[in-house]
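ugh ok so i messed up the first submission bc i forgot one of the chains. this is the corrected input, ALL of the components this time, i swear. 206 residues overall. if the numbers dont match what u have on ur side tell me asap before i send this to the collaborators (the ones from the other lab, u know who)
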Amino acid sequence: MTAKMEIPTVTTARLILRPLTEADTQTLHCILGERGVLRYFPHPDPPPRDKVRKFILGQLGHWEDHGYGWWAVQPRSTKELIGWSGLQFLPETAETEVGFLLSRRYWGKGLATEAARASLRYGFEELGLGSIVAIVHPENRASRRVIEKLGMSFVDQAQYFGMDCYRYSMGRSSFRTKAKTAEIAWPEGYAQKQDFLERGKGGRPY
Ligand SMILES: CC(C)(COP(=O)(O)OP(=O)(O)OC[C@H]1O[C@@H](n2cnc3c(N)ncnc32)[C@H](O)[C@@H]1OP(=O)(O)O)[C@@H](O)C(=O)NCCC(=O)NCCS
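and heres the new structure output, hopefully the right one now
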């Protein structure tokens, strides 16, 4: 039997990013059925429950294949599943994208930005990725705002998932520079911040 990857759990000021499990199927099914959550996705109709279960299993396979994937996002205070965030491999372009989706009840509190920032940090610091993109429907203003708050730069308009999308990008050095100059606001109490900045001075082959 092949060894299963141990998917890491990451903690931010207000969130826990933990592995998705099959037990999340029902809650995620409900979230994806909320009005407007999939509005700007290539398939905006809420998926049936079994497709959600397969999606979760697919994500666990994605972690195995690439060393990253979507995490389940839950508040530290309530520990309920509220959405996903993380990194995803785009096979058509061999890019890595950062992404996020939350239950409507949690919109407008800065949580997607907080989860995505931790995802970027994981990609750049832990995985040593050179660049990460964000792909968004042009009319998805909330998502574009999150991407801008992350400090990512607009690159171009391109076809992804059969849709016209805006592509944004960020390189590792830009992430590190912005982290140092505090253009990226780290969540309060973010444990690894100082460690990251210290290690960046020489300990890592950036
Ligand atoms: C996109 C999404 C994850 C944002 O989550 P969130 O936790 O509300 O995001 P944040 O609170 O971190 O930031 C949202 C920002 O967008 C702004 N915003 C929200 N709606 C907006 C709109 N219609 N026009 C312009 N700005 C908008 C907010 O004011 C906030 O910016 P601010 O901090 O400068 O005030 C959430 O709306 C969602 O889950 N949408 C459905 C799934 C989705 O589209 N995912 C992205 C796929 S690319």
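quick check: The longest strand covers residues 163-171. that seems consistent at least. The radius of gyration is 16 Å.
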